[in-house]
């Protein structure tokens, strides 16, 4: 398994298991199967609503002797309604409690978007708090205190533009280890990936398969289906693998970590095997031409009329 090395020498497995959209009732079996197959990196978040079941699966694997805690890389994320410094430590404590862990390997600010505490999903614009009133720098300082307290080995961000990442780096005592963003051949974000590399910030690619299983309300009727892209299919046929494997191998090939979600044992195994698929120059060249700056997760849920957030300020584009 390929690893990405952090500044202090810690190693994050390049391929992890995504758990967004993995329902309670199925996520536990998926995590247990994944660990048995050889996954050593699990990506979680408080908002996914499934951390307790993931924690039970991890505990079963440790109890059986399949893995030790130290062999696993566990990431989770701070939700938007807990950005105020006094809520950060308790939010991490709650995640650790649900996961049954003493520490995380990585804790991320899930979005550069703040809500009123308790407004988990905003129902009205007054549920949003502007970053002018609750700056990321204040949230970051509270995350740094979580590192000091030994509750997480690393901290980082998610859905951050290069400009927002730069501002965190410039004010940070503990540098961000990672920026987790949507990345796949239709949204390659080369400038952002380069900006992260220049700062020594690892990049994790989410929705690498195009997240077809997300709620219909988040989907455009005419959205292109990444897993059915003819160029990806052609590469898959030539290399003797599946389209999903091409997508996962491409993410690893370009130096990012990647967290495909599956709850299906065959697809879990197939996705793990992608880590040993080698792309060639022709495949890389063809995939470069597929970029269309197409976000599947475009952030419009944070930008209703009257919100302090707009797509322009969210992505700094
Ligand atoms: P399932 O969980 O039933 O396997 P993303 O990681 O981009 O969010 O995509 C997750 C979606 O892709 C889910 O619908 C998942 O379904 C599906 N998926 C995961 N692995 C594969 C695969 N190897 N081939 C096809 N679809 C896959």
Automatic annotation (TrEMBL):
Binding positions (substrate): 110
SUPFAM superfamilies per record: NAD(P)-linked oxidoreductase
Official protein name in the record: Aldehyde reductase
Species per Swiss-Prot/TrEMBL record: Plesiocystis pacifica SIR-1
Protein keywords: NADP, Oxidoreductase
Domain NADP-dependent oxidoreductase: 15-283
CDD domains, per database record: AKR_AKR3G1 (cd19123)
Active site: residue positions: 48 (proton donor)
PROSITE patterns, sorted: ALDOKETO_REDUCTASE_1, ALDOKETO_REDUCTASE_2
